[in-house]
Recover the amino acids of this structure.
């Protein structure tokens, strides 16, 4: 093309464009081991394999979490957030669904009230809880009453649990 421009002292390529395309399509290409004009629907697969190699499907990894696993959610920390504060939520969640048609796998989770959280979570955003403790930390005492049962007074305390929303008050 540049040779033509120099010899004819012009930059007008439209006049020779059909010749340029013909020459390109009939020139041997190392990447596909033939000329582009030789490629047709009957030999597309061998040309593709020459260009990209044989396709080997990647081995799918097993999901890290299973339905029913207890997990915590990662807390998003800002630039000047204290490093000694926890990186994971106190509240525990249950994996309710694994979405297998996406890789890396994504998970739907639900709280103890069986309410599903909006959105999906990647494996790196979840932390599996190995042992479920039945001990929960109290954030604040909301109400204190004594109820009479027979001759005894039994205290009834309403509390807000640390790390859980008000819907979990008991």
């Amino acid at each position: 093309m540049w040779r033509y421009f120099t010899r004819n002292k012009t930059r007008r390529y439209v006049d020779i464009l059909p010749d340029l395309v013909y020459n390109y399509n009939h020139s041997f290409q190392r990447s596909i081991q033939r000329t582009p004009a030789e490629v047709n629907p009957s030999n597309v697969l061998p040309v593709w394999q020459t260009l990209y190699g044989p396709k080997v499907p990647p081995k799918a990894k097993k999901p890290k979490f299973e339905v029913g696993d207890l997990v915590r959610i990662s807390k998003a920390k800002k630039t000047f957030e204290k490093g000694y504060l926890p990186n994971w939520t106190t509240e525990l969640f249950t994996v309710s669904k694994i979405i297998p048609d996406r890789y890396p796998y994504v998970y739907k989770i639900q709280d103890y009230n069986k309410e599903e959280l909006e959105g999906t979570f990647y494996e790196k955003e979840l932390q599996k809880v190995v042992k479920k403790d039945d001990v929960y930390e109290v954030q604040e005492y909301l109400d204190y009453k004594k109820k009479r049962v027979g001759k005894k007074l039994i205290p009834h305390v309403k509390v807000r649990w640390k790390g859980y929303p008000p819907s979990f008050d008991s």
Notes: The chain has a mean pLDDT of 86. The radius of gyration is 33 Å. The longest helix spans residues 17-25. The chain is about 15% helix and 25% strand.
